[in-house]
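Field: COMPLEX_INPUT
Field: COMPONENT_COUNT = three
Field: RESIDUE_TOTAL = 459
Field: MODE = joint
Values follow.
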Amino acid sequence: MNAVQWYLQRITGGLLIVLLAAHFWVEHFLTEPLRRGELTYQALLPRIANPWWQAVDIAFLLVALYHGLNGVRNILLDYDRISRRAARAATTVLILAGFLWAWWGIEAFRNLR
Amino acid sequence: MAAWRLQRLTGLLLLVYLFLHVRTVHQLSQGPAAFNEAMAFFRHPVFKLLEIGLLGVVILHALNGVRITLIDLGIGHRRQARLFWILSVGAGGLLFLAGAIPMFLFSVLKL
Amino acid sequence: MNPYLFRILRSPSRTDIFQVSLEERMTVLDALFSIRQERDPTLAFRCSCRVGMCGTCAMSVNGTARLACRTRVVTLKSKTVTVAPLPNLPVIRDLVVSLDPFFEQWKRVLPALHPREPAAKDLARIPADSPYARQTPRKRDCITCGACFSACGVRGTNRGYLGPAAINKAFLRLLDPRDGAATQRLDVLNDEYSGLWRCHTQFNCTEVCPKGIDLTDTITRLKRAMLAPGRWLAR
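Field: COMPLEX_OUTPUT
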């Protein structure tokens, strides 16, 4: 299990590079108004209302949350002044925070339609 | 040692950014008027400078992450310190400038 | 003879400064002996073999953990030499530290050979193309000096961390075809609070090892192998 987590941190890291590049390209270079820096509701809506793009964005968010919150967990594990019980509690909090955060992100898209 | 510290610092900064970003996207759901008003705030030059900073943070974290993964695969141990400076800082610096200079010229100086 | 200024950090509140004349090939240990014999007989430090074999004289020299007997002053490229006890270990007096924390972790990995066949009468044969013969030649020279252990940045905040030397020892035993205690060692290594996963490839250990052991390499090899530990357990 620990080996899998170590491995996943690297895999999600690599995935994030790819997803970020795609996200950046789509947000700032895909259409003409975006290339001009016109980040208006009207310019973004066509792409953002598209469920396929929403899926990509949500996937990006979930991968980023795993990578980031697992990173925070690793930082906590490096401090022995945090007892094992406290570390276990912190892991639970981080997992909960992850789910809430992901839900919060997905909500942003749902409220659009 | 510096590489490790930097990786943690940039990681935490990016998490903070992620929070702010999701919050911003939420404002989309408030309708076009509220969204466009929020976006106007982001056009301020100070904010654009922060965006350039964000670019630097992302590049550092990503390239150093690549370096760490290479090391975990057993590649580059003897040159690991140099790898940090060449890859993360050097190549990263170049990428950063490639992004930051146009951003600075167009968005901050409004050329 | 060249003059050197030795700053000895004997305690957090006491730094003694000695001017010492040294010949070009002399070491930090030579300087310490000179100070002790001619200036201050109360200066406490540990040493034994004087030739880099025993690991007893490890201490911090100009900020880096090194063997005093193997550090020629001329290689320090400075006329001022700051000597301090190894960091992150309890100080007994002056430059003498307790290696108890080091050996506590060392013992956790069952450093002795636990033979799979204790009653075997024949000599064990280790073929030249076996993993042990191929992967361990440059890993066996550990003299338990404690330099890597004290230099490790992770140990700075996590006193329970195994440390590079213990992990390296576990690696040697795991690959050893005569050994039968793989399961217990893997459990210790796999502990997420104190095991090898706490290593963050800072490379401090590899940089200071006086025997040139690539400790980070050992640890990353082990991490990769932990994805499929069966091969050790199946032996």
